[in-house]
Amino acid sequence: MKMSIINEKENPYMERKELTVKLTHDKNATPSKAVVQAEIAKETKKDAENVQILSIHSENGIGVSTGKAYVWKEKKVEDLSKPKPAEEKKE
What we know:
It is a single chain. The protein is mainly β and 91 residues long. It has a single domain (2-72), classed as Alpha-Beta Plaits. Helices cover 13% and strands 40% of the residues. It has one helix at residues 33-44, and strands at 2-11, 16-24, 51-58, 64-72. A hairpin with a 4-residue loop joins strand 1 (2-11) and strand 2 (16-24).
């Protein structure tokens, strides 16, 4: 998967950057939010907990997707690549 930032807007009132990214994933499925979160975190040199993925939309048949994300100054979201603890079974 190859990622490029199409648009980057600074929002100082909300203390975040608003990104639009283009994802190229030839002959592969649309990348998951966890994968995109990790790529944006690596590109912006932030932790994954600072990156919130809003949406990922794929183009039909061409292996290209567009995503929207927020990069917060403070940690606000969970790292999607970490497994969630198993829910307790109610009896």
